[in-house]
Every structure is written in structure tokens, then in C-alpha cells.
Model the fold of this input.
Amino acid sequence: MFPLDRQSPTPLTDQVEARLCELMASGRLPAGARLPSIRQLASTLAVSPQTIVTAYDRLAARGQIDSRGTAGFFVRAAAAPSDEAAAQLLEAGEEQEPVWLAQQANDQRAGRLLASSGALPAAWLQDAIPAAAVQRALANSAAGLASRCPPQGLPELRERIALLMRAQGMPVDAGRILTTYGATHAIDLICRAFLQPGDTVLVEDPGYFLMFGRLRQQGLRIVPITRRVDGIDLAELEAACREHRPRLLFVQSVLHNPTGWGSSPGNLHRLLTLAQQHGFLIAEDDVHGHFHPGQATTRLAALAGFERVIYFSSFAKALSPALRLGYVAADHALLRPLLREKILTVLTTPALNEYVMTEALATGRWRKHLERLQRKLVTARNVCIRQLGEAGIAFDEPGEGGLFLWGRLPSATDADLLVQDALRHGYVLARGASFSADSSRPSPHIRFNVVLAQHLGLAAYLRERLAAQGEARAVLEGALKISG
Done:
């Protein structure tokens, strides 16, 4: 189909991606054209199937091709949205505000690469729940689409979730589990059930950006605690406990968002001790824990046996955003007020979603899908570190795995100007300051999605922009020395 240069230092995956881009740009692969299958193109080019998989994934993430399940991959039309359609899209906030960043990930606007997105590309999830699984789930339901779901969640699903959690070392039974619409819903229930206006809440800095706005909305006092490579800063935490008498701490112990860092067992043990001494609750966010490539991972809920710990996670990111299904686990005394708030606000979660998720867990589809995702993420992560590193991004602490890389910009770079310019070129980047409770404080970091940020165009853009800013800084410093 096209030649590859095996003597070139450019990786074969990059060459395949670039050649396909050229064919699409020239019209030799027009819109609607079906690309060769992964095995067919791998055989033709004498490369591994994984090389083609990675190239196709990058093109799909960029919106240049579509994955249509078993039908294969097709070239996507490059038409921009009409003026009428663009006018109908409302912006929820200003650029780089958390709600704006979250909106970009879900609007999926044409011509934008969501290089800092918190989600996997659709191509990675399309086969996770086949239509046959949905049909079986309906067939197994009590009354099909007329089925009602208990407010706490389907008993069979809660039992499956309990089995999953026990395999991760957390001692829980189905009676201590509550289903939710996802992690954001779980955070909302926790705030409603346990916090009052004026209460002090501790958060990690950097941390999950959408949570900060939710806490402020309720009139809560937010005290940020620095997040380090091995966990939350214990000295800062202890000082904050003495000064502010917090009611609750939100923490991510596994594959922290946005950094991808973990927490050491020693750090978590000390954290639990401080919670006991100062009487605050801990809300443990484990949304990204599913992506961890290893099994020996310590969670607060496992160490504490759920004493003072409210654990929550979600299937939406790893399995299907269309399901919007998550779960909370806690002792009965803490779960009961959460259940009351769920009934008062949404009554229950959809029975169809819960039957489909039960089917995925019961048949082993979830486990197999997760293993595939973990392997692909490791490969994507390595490629992303290499490409972005060559472009000038530093990864001082790459983290333990998962979806994110916390990249540091060169000292000469203005992060705010960079993300603004990147957007004008079709790249949506999230600056580090957006992940801080105090977004006005500058940060030299960018969060990168390891799957979507592999695109060659992004690496080329960053290489050019970072080099140009570095040269400008050098000229300015030289001029200042001469004038001095």
C-alpha cells in the first residue's frame, strides 16, 4: 500500500500514521473509504498487528477515521459544523474552567483533539458491550423495559460488585453497596448527606477539578493539601486538621487524577490514624483504579475495613459512558443517609443500565475487557512519554500507569498562553492550574491523556511552540544582560 523506511529512526507506527494521513489529505483515501483490516495491513506492510492498532487508534482519536465495530475502519468526512449548528452550542464556562474542560470531552466537537481529556476514545470502548449482551440483559430482567430498580440498586448487581471489591482486598458485602449514576453523582450524594454550609473540606492539590465547584456551590470551606508522589502531604494534613477541624477529606489513593501517582501503604496508614485522631470522614475516589496494571494495590477502604471511609468508583470511564453507572460502599451507618439522599434527588438509577452491567460482570466480559485496556494503556503510555518528551515535555514522576501523564513545561513557557494558542490550532490542553482549588496560582504542568496525546500533529506543534518560546526567552535574557 505504501513503503516504510525500516532504517529510519522514526518508529514504524508513526510512519504508518503519517502515510495514512497523506493518503487521506490527497484524496486517495476519500471520505467513506474503508481502510484495510488490521491484519491485512499488518501483513501487507510486514509489521505487527499492534503497530496498525496503535496507528488506527490515533487516527480515530483525532476524528480522521471511524471504528464501526466488526465492519472495520472508515475515513471520516472532514466537513466542519455549519454556522447554525455552531451557534446552537452553548459554552458552560470560560476557557480552562473545569466545567468548560468537561464540556469539551462530551461535546466531541469536530476538528479538536482532546489531548487532555479524562476519557478513553470511543474506538476503545465500542465492543465492550455488544448488542447481544444488552438483549440478554433485557431477557434476564423481571419485566423488560417495564422493570423497576430498587433505590439501593439491583441485589444481583450489588452482589457482583461486592465480589469485585473483595477480589481487590476490600471486605464488603452487597448490603453495604449503593449504585449511582457515576462518580460525580456519588460526590454529590456525599456532600448532601454529610456536609453543611460553613464546614471545612480537605482536598488534594492538584485534584479532581469538577469537585471544587461542587463544594463551593454548597458554601463549604475548601482547604487544599499538596498531593505528592507517594500520597497526600501528611505534615500539611496534620497542620490543617489542627487549625481547621475538617469534616471530610476527598482523596484518591490509586492512580490519582491528574498525576497518575499512587499512595504508599505507610502514607495511607498514617492518613487513617489522623482521621481517627481528628474525627473526620474520608471519601476515597477510586474511579481510575480499574486502569492500574497490577493487582498489589493498597486502598484505604481495605486498610480501614470501611471505618470512617466512604469508597466510590464508576464503570463509566472504563466500560461505557452511555451506562453512567457507579457505586458507593460504606458501613450501614454512613450508607443509610446516602440512600436517603439518592431517593430524595433521583429516586433510583435505571434498571436497564444495572441489568446490562450485571450481565457484563456475570459473563466475565468486564474482566477480559479491563485486561485488554490495561495492556493497551501501557503501550500508549510508553509511546506518549517518548513523543512528548522529544517535543520538550518533562515527566519528572510518570506515575504508576493509567490514563494520565502529568507533564512539566520548560521554564520559559507560559502555560496560559500555550493552551490558548493550542486551542486555536485544534488541540484542547488542560493546564495544571485548572486542577487546583486555587486556579489563579500558576502551574508549569499540563495533564495529558496517554491515548489521545499520541497524535503526531500534537507532538510537532509542541516541539515548534516550545522551541520558539525558548528562543524568545533566551533573546530577552541576553538583551537584559547587555542593558544591565
User: Anything to note?
Assistant: Residues 34 and 74 are 4 Å apart (CA to CA). The chain has a mean pLDDT of 92. The longest strand covers residues 221-228. The chain has two domains: 12-75, 99-484.
